[in-house]
TrEMBL record:
Pfam families associated with the record: CbiA, GATase_3
Pathway: Cofactor biosynthesis; adenosylcobalamin biosynthesis
Alphabetical list of PANTHER family matching this protein: COBYRIC ACID SYNTHASE (PTHR21343:SF1), DETHIOBIOTIN SYNTHETASE (PTHR21343)
Xref: PROSITE patterns: GATASE_COBBQ
Spans through the membrane: none
The keyword Ribosomal protein is assigned to this record: no
Family annotation (CDD domains): CobQ_N, GATase1_CobQ
Residue span(s) of domain CobQ/CobB/MinD/ParA nucleotide binding: 5-228
Residues the record marks as active site: C331, H439
InterPro entries named in the record: Class_I_gatase-like (IPR029062), CobQ/CobB/MinD/ParA_Nub-bd_dom (IPR002586), CobQ_GATase1 (IPR033949), CobQ_N (IPR047045), CobQ_synth (IPR004459), GATase_3 (IPR011698), P-loop_NTPase (IPR027417)
Protein name per its UniProtKB record: Cobyric acid synthase
Domain CobB/CobQ-like glutamine amidotransferase: 251-445
Entry similarity comment: Belongs to the CobB/CobQ family. CobQ subfamily.
């Protein structure tokens, strides 16, 4: 039987996911077999496991930090918002269906057996389980029948660490308010408080720490500084999306669609000196990039309409027509590039919609979701990205549509699908416009660098200094740095005592 500890937060984006990943790495380095767990996650960024099952990317990051293969056991329920009031509900990696918020609120307790079956399986296979909560445990309208915060802590009999974000201000009020809105038995489950994202002199903070400890009768066991550590973010609150970037020698613009998903597909470009990766949502922000990326989306048709209404579609088509700008669509962004999108089963909006018309193809949305890991190589390309020819990649497909191509060439050749050898083509290209269903297509060593080299060469700039990089190795270094910071700024002896004592 594993020992468990739970990380909850005073609010969304307090740093729960990062702190959970850090604890996973610390326990791994200490020789424990450790697994992350989050009973219910809401995110548009998802991942496909080797078994072809879907889970949230935060638990994938935490599994990597723990040195484990990602498994849907670590995230049995995933909610992917389809609009402001509804989500696609994914249970044990497979689509259960779409529900509005009210219906899901009534239904969710029926999923407790699924949650506990996953948790108990991990319990039997690991020494430690680090559980992550969601949002805040003090949402008083949601506390009844809770399955992800204190409700999960009770089911797992897990002591709780409360993480509070000081960067936004009001940290003591958020700690006090969170604790006081809990029931007495729930307060007793919180065994330690961690102040996160601190900037400044901790000596000035110490009187406040003593006062909050007296008021809530819970020790503050750590003050974690604002960390400059590059670990994949999960949602649209990510700072890497919000921060304005200076245009560099190679300028890549990702269209920030309202329902953008899997934006982590492009993080690897940020590791290449001389490359700017910008997320843009207006014509003024777009400027004249070397490459425009249309990312994945949870609602292709709705986001295509937004693209059209914002004027960005017309500007992208104009830049594509000049033959100089690369336009690359991934998953939903790939679907947008075609002539038509048809939705006979109302998977998204229903009906049909004219696409951007940059590739001769049409997409028909189906009830069945494609979920598979793939490996392959790029086709023999001509034009600007000819240097990408035959380079190998790996990634995963996750989409509801089937795309039929006409007068286009395939972008890639797939030779491994779900661990089995196959021979098939995928994606489409025509001159400087191309697209693929494969998430993670840029991550494999050599792919992103080859694209940067091609774009530099097109401009007559020197590309000889660009280095091949291993994104996997880079992430491992970041997890180690995170663990170092956790050990340096948090009382790990206190955490070990909390873990051993339980509740």
């Amino acid at each position: 039987m594993a020992k468990s500890i739970m990380v909850q937060g005073t609010m969304s984006n307090a740093g729960k996911s990062l702190f959970t990943a850090g604890l996973c790495r610390v326990f791994k380095q200490a020789g424990y077999k450790v697994a992350p767990f989050k009973s219910q996650n809401m995110a548009l960024n998802s991942y496909i496991t080797k078994e072809g099952l879907e889970m949230g990317r935060a638990q994938v990051v935490q599994a990597e930090a723990a040195g484990q293969e990602p498994s849907v056991l670590m995230n049995p329920i995933l909610l992917k918002p389809t609009n402001d009031q509804g989500s696609q509900v994914i249970v044990n990696g497979e689509v259960l269906g779409n529900m509005n918020a009210a219906d899901y609120f009534k239904y969710k307790t029926r999923l407790i057996p699924n949650i506990m079956e996953s948790y108990q399986t991990l319990d039997q296979k690991n020494d430690v389980i680090v559980i992550e909560g969601a949002g805040s445990p003090a949402e008083i309208n949601l506390q009844e029948d809770d399955i992800v915060n204190m409700g999960m802590a009770k089911m797992a009999k897990a002591p709780v660490l409360l993480v509070a974000d000081i960067d936004r201000g009001g940290v003591f009020a958020s700690i006090y308010g969170t604790v006081m809105l809990l029931s007495e038995d729930e307060r007793e489950m919180i065994k330690g408080i961690v102040i996160n994202k601190f900037r400044g002199d901790v000596e000035i903070l110490k009187p406040g720490l003593r006062m909050i400890e007296e008021k809530v009768n819970i020790p503050v066991i750590g003050v974690v500084p604002y960390l400059n550590i590059d670990i994949e973010d999960e949602d649209s609150l990510s700072e890497r999306i919000a921060v304005d970037k200076i245009v560099q020698a190679v300028d890549i613009a990702v269209i920030r669609l309202p329902r953008m998903s899997n934006f982590t597909d492009f993080n690897v470009f940020e590791l290449i000196p001389g490359v700017s990766l910008r997320y843009v949502k207006s014509m003024a922000e777009l400027k004249n990039p070397d490459m425009i990326i249309l990312p994945g989306t949870k609602n292709t048709m709705a986001d295509l309409l937004w693209l059209r209404q914002s004027g960005l579609e017309a500007k992208i088509k104009k830049q594509a027509a000049d033959g100089e700008t690369i336009v690359f669509g991934v998953c939903g962004g790939y679907q947008m590039l075609g002539e038509t999108l048809e939705d006979p089963f109302s998977v998204e909006e229903g009906g049909s919609l004219t696409g951007m018309g940059l590739l001769d193809m049409k997409t028909i949305f189906s009830k069945q979701k494609t979920r598979t890991q793939v490996e392959g190589r790029f086709s023999q390309l001509d034009g600007v990205l000819s240097g990408l020819s035959s380079i190998r990649f790996r990634g995963y497909e996750i989409h509801m549509g089937v795309t039929e191509t006409g007068d286009t060439e395939p972008l890639t050749h797939i030779d491994i699908e779900s661990g089995l050898q196959v021979q098939k083509t995928e994606g489409a290209r025509k001159r400087n416009v191309m697209g693929s269903y494969v998430h993670g297509i840029f991550d494999e060593e050599g792919v992103a660098v080859a694209i940067a080299e091609c774009l530099l060469n097109k401009k007559g700039l020197d590309s000889t200094s660009l280095k091949q990089l291993s994104y996997k190795q880079y992430k491992e270094q970041q997890y180690d740095r995170l663990a170092d910071e956790i050990r340096k700024n948090v009382d790990m002896a206190a955490i070990m005592n909390i873990l051993e004592a339980g509740v």
